[in-house]
Write a structure and sequence with these properties.
Largest sheet: 7 strands, mixed
Number of helices: 0
Helix content: under 10%
Structural class: mainly beta
Oligomer: single chain
Number of strands: 11
Mean pLDDT: 95
Length: 118
């Protein structure tokens, strides 16, 4: 199994920046890709950004040019640099892992709150 722990959330004014971190442990060799998701009250969880073991990345249109996903040398730790934050970025942010052989993301962190005030 893979365990994920997020850190780095908080409150910031619009236009500010935050950096999220996610550390993976356990059977990390089974991870194919990792991603950041977010869920605002009343909304479904949505993919914000993803990065795979080969370094390929993808972003939601709403965050392109503002957010950057990165990782350390392995895929055991990923980061989300969030710049030019907007009130609509307010949500609980979750780190997820997609393991080989799975049909979808199958490991999740506990979530970290990001609040952007206008």
């Amino acid at each position: 199994q893979v365990q994920l722990v997020e850190s780095g959330g908080g409150s910031v004014q619009a236009g500010g920046s935050l950096r999220l971190s996610c550390a993976a442990s356990g059977r990390t060799f089974t991870i194919y890709s990792m991603g950041w998701f977010r869920q605002a009250p009343g909304n479904a969880r949505e993919l914000v950004a993803g990065i795979n073991r080969d370094g390929g990345t993808n972003y939601a249109d709403s965050v392109k040019g503002r957010f950057t996903i990165s990782r350390d040398n392995s895929i055991d730790r990923i980061f989300l640099q969030m710049n030019s934050l907007k009130p609509e970025d307010t949500a609980v942010y979750y780190c997820g892992a997609y393991t080989y052989g799975s049909a979808s993301y199958d490991a999740w962190g506990q979530g970290t709150q990001v609040t952007v005030s206008s």
